[in-house]
Structure formats: structure tokens, C-alpha cells
Amino acid sequence: MTEAAPILVLALLAITFLQSGYDKIKDWKGNVEWLTGHFANTILAKQVPMALMTILVLEIIAGVLCVSGIIQLFIQQPVTKGLGYYGAIVSCLTLLCLLFGQRLAKDYDGARTIVIYFIPAVLAVFLLS
């Protein structure tokens, strides 16, 4: 299997974003309440539900594209700039949005955690480009 590295990184991203999206759907109210407090002193204070919906949509798109990319890598090899590539790009954009929010909220530990996810997302872009 020559595509093991991209498949593993895409699996990491798919699990991360699909689980996160599922959690947002399952506990929408709890997420909105917590994030309203988290962003109380930022420009996002009155935008929390809309921002959360935007992140949710991005996460689901990223997760579905990453799963689709894994399937595509199994079915037709080699694939360049396939669905996994676009999944990795959307993953990076989603993580940048999350990083921006954490920095606005001055949650530097949270921002640091997002960077840990950003590294494999960029690696996936590199491996699939």
C-alpha cells in the first residue's frame, strides 16, 4: 500500500471532525451556552450560534471529504488532488477559524491544541498535492 500515510492522516482528520460535528449536533444547547461564556468579551459575543453553525458545517464537509478521499485512495491509485486533498484543505481552513476564535478569546492553551491538529492537516495537503 503506497498510500498508507495519506490514508492514516485523512482518517485522523475524518474522526476528529465527524466526532466534533456529531457532538455539536447532539448537544447544541450546551455548546452554545459554553461558547457564549467563552466568547463573552470578544467581537463574537453576539455571533456564537452563527459562528458555531459555520464551524459545524465546515467540520462536516471536512470529515465527509476526508472519508471520501480515503475511499478514493483505495479505489483509484494514484490520486492527486482528489477528494482527500480538498478534505485536507477544508480541514486546514476549519482549524484556522477555530484558532482565530481561541486567540480572540485569549485561550492560548486551546489555541496550542488546535496547532497540534493543524500540523497533520497541512501534512495531508502536502502528501496529496
TrEMBL record:
Protein name according to UniProt: DoxX family protein
Keywords noted in UniProt: Membrane, Transmembrane, Transmembrane helix
Residue ranges crossing the lipid bilayer per the database entry: 47-71, 83-104, 110-128
Species this protein is from: Flavobacterium celericrescens
